[in-house]
Amino acid sequence: KELSDVNILLIPVGSVFTIGPEEAWEVVNQLKPNIVIPMHYKTKYLR
Length: 47
Hints:
alpha+beta; single chain; 2 strands; two-stranded parallel sheet
């Protein structure tokens, strides 16, 4: 299905149970949202 006029994109990125940063970048470039909020990523700095 096609999406258009995406204003805010909440995108799961982190490569474990989600897409990786390269795939996330492709999605962002395809949809061209005004705001991107990455979520569900794990770093050693987060609990």
